Amino acid sequence: MNTFKTENPLVSVIICVYNAGDYLRKSLQSVLDQTYRNLEVVIVNDGSTDGCMATIEDIDDPRIRILHQQNKGKPSAMNRALETIRGEYYAIHDADDLSAPRRIECQLHCMLNYPDLAATFCGYDLIIGGERHAPLSTAKSREVCRDDIAAFRMPSHDPTGMYRMSLVRHVRYNPTLLLGEGLDYILRIGEYFPMMVVGECLYSYRIHDASITKKHSQQRNELVKEVFKLAASRRGVDLQAILPRSIEPSWKGNRNADNNLASHFMSSVCDLRKKNRYIQALQTGLHCFWLHPTDFHYAKALIYALIPLWLVRHLRSVPI
Q: Where are the domains of the chain?
């Protein structure tokens, strides 16, 4: 149900597609099924070769526009879309992920209530083996988001973002960053404009073996370091002194291969416990443990589900 009685702005949803396989159809449908209806859905086919575009050919919805280009990477595809969108706001949606029905409605409601915001994000969970796990749903004020940006962190996962075009129209994605482009984009916007995170889990991020970040973990680390260096240069700070662990990550083995997935599970357990959802917190910790039962790092989420919260806070204040 549309709750906007005085304003009904157009929201552009950008979906960049590269070999999304059988996930694309359900992913697109989750956008078309949004409770907020005034959308344009701009799909950029970034040179897909797996036939995924054929899976949506029969979807007849006038809100869809499809652009085709040779494979140039997500930053180029995003920039192509940004040149053509018509919305007052734009949201990102990855081609293998799912948006909850109220995602656009809730994020737009936040933007309309706070007209100085450049961006809103939302909580998200993980799709692993076809099931959803480890939800995060903590709201973040503009002050907390500002602290995240100052610490070179994203307030939430980058594909959960919605942006106000009047403030970010001039900003483009760095085409040289084939990985880490979202972090770079968010840091640059957050250095100048306020952001907030809606306190609901409204997005589901798919984890699978074909994920580009899993296949190119070493390249990802190098490009993320480059993002940090660019941000430090803009801010005139010594990154080595501020973020030594980010510049020279000590991750090895499983953590490096899955982009430290266990860290998300730990955060989810803490989030669930704060909301008194103890059984779900325990289930989340157990699922993390079974990802790699012989790796102690993946047991930490389960430990956090069982020990007193004050001890969890102490342990999480210590670098791990």
A: 11-207, 256-320
CA 311 to centroid of chain Cα atoms: 29
Q: Poorest-confidence range of 27-31, 124-128, 225-229?
A: 225-229
Residue 67 corresponds to which amino acid?
L
236 backbone dihedrals φ, ψ, rounded to 5°:
70, 40
∠ at Cα 201 (151, 261), nearest 5°?
55
pTM comes to 0.91
DSSP state at residue 163: E
Between CA 73 and CA 120 the distance in angstroms is 24
Do residues 79 and 92 lie in contact, with contact meaning Cβ atoms separated by under 8 Å? no
pLDDT, residue 240, reads: 76
β-bridge mates for residue 123, sequence order? 201
SS (H, E, C) 192-215: CCCEEEEEEEEEEEEECCCCHHHH
DSSP per-residue letters across 77-113: HHHHHHTT---SEEEE--TT-EE-TTHHHHHHHHHHH
> What are the Cα distances from residue 262, in Å, to 233, 255, 286, 290?
30, 7, 11, 11
For domain 11-207, the CATH superfamily is Spore Coat Polysaccharide Biosynthesis Protein SpsA; Chain A (3.90.550.10)
